[in-house]
Amino acid sequence: MNLPPDHYFVLIVPIGIFLLGMALFTCWRVLRQQHFLPWLATGYLLPALAMAVQSLMSNEQLADWSVIAAALYLVGGWALTRGLAMRHGGDVSLPLAIVIGVTTLALLYYYSRVEEQLWTRAICLNTALALMYLLPFRSILRRRNPGDTLERIVRWSYIACVGYALLRPLLIIALAPDYEMAMLTRSGYWLLTLAASLIFSIWFMFILLACALRDVMRVLHEERNRDPLTQLINRRAFFESAERALQDSNLAPWALLACDVDHFKQVNDTWGHTAGDQVLQSVAHILTEQVRRDDLVSRFGGEEFIILLNRSDAGHARSVAQRIQSQLALTRFSAIPGKVTVSFGLTLVTSAADLAHAIERADISLYQAKQSGRDRICMLPEEPPA
Description:
Elements: H1 12-30, H2 37-55, H3 59-87, H4 94-114, H5 118-133, H6 137-141, H7 149-175, H8 188-225, H9 235-246, E1 254-261, H10 264-271, H11 273-289, E2 296-301, E3 304-310, H12 314-330, E4 342-349, H13 355-371, E5 377-379
Parallel strand pairs: 4-5
Antiparallel strand pairs: 1-3, 1-4, 2-3
Helix pairs in contact: 1-2, 1-8, 2-3, 3-4, 3-5, 4-5, 5-7, 7-8, 10-11
């Protein structure tokens, strides 16, 4: 193409968007669990290719390549919206996307090969892209945890992008009248399109990558703090969470239960460790069912569990332990015959500084429950009676 040297300057924008797409692909190779990233990358790369080629074309060449360029834009738009929907736990309608794409390509073919109308083609393509960007609308707006700052930024950025896409056909009418269409890729409309595309691309990339990294950190944090077998918080996470809870006076008073599965070694020795694992998982499930959302249930190790009950006195803690025992008495385990029982050591907690001593007192009470015949709830006599 024999174009003025300054005309190649417009390639900076599509090249920049293409590099952003490659950066997203690179991030996906590191963050493999973020399955939406390759779709977002495709949503960057394909439109960047179409934009770069169109930036160097004359109007006659635009007509010859309009269907192919539009296909790149539409497939890229669908990939982008699918990535956004996947990131928000949803998906987009492929049949609806196909209807939008086929209808648009048919119109572009007609207005490029049968009746040459560049202005109409621009309106058709931009309208189709706006409809494509609307596909993940429900998935994004129903996103959980709206109080998360990053999620709010993603939501409002998406709304702004959709709003701009819906306004673009009107911008064509206002900024690209017939006389400017004499050379579309040198018009004010084309420069505005390039600038807006680059701004939205950079902004979306950084905010979505920030969300992806935040999600990965959350997963790592959960893996660090969760017992892999029972999915309860582990000892370290219990101490961290308990200290925060014990500093909140709105959660006072507190009670602590040390829970141990009776004759668990016999379960492992008789029916194997797989059966023992199933028993622990079932016990953990029952423990979490019988406490409130803001109570803490932790697997401390082996067959021992610790429960911190907020807004609870000794009487309430004893009733919780009794409910757990009653539920276990009704539970039938597929891995072993017969029932499983648990023993409890109960104590009260006065403050965060008292936590370690409270666990010691609960362990002593638990030992007394074991010595007294198991399947019991014991509390040290010097504490307030239950």
